Amino acid sequence: MAKKMPVLSGREVIKLLSGLGFVQVKQKGSHVKMKGIHNQNKRTVIIPLHKELAPGTLASILKQADITIEELIKKK
User: Is 1 contained in some domain?
Assistant: First the structure.
């Protein structure tokens, strides 16, 4: 059964990804670029600084980072 996507802001996602080893490398306007290594692969993730990320946007960020919703929730 799939887990329901939590409602998170862009800043909360940045904080959680930082805890998983990602670092902020650039910001252009309201979008932050983060890079990290996860599961032995280099990953680049773009995060919009919205107050609430849409479930599809959060799912896309997790896919880019190769992180499951369970891993993210554990960090919360």
Answer: no
Which residue stretches of 1-76 are H helix?
10-19, 55-65, 69-75
Side-chain-side CA neighbours of residue 25 (13 Å): 10
Q: Tell me the sheet residues that pair with 26.
A: 33
Sign of torsion, CA 11 27 53 1? negative
pTM of the model: 0.88
Tally of domains within the chain? 1
User: Which tens digit of pLDDT belongs to each residue from 12-45?
Assistant: 999 999 998 999 999 999 999 999 998 888 999 9
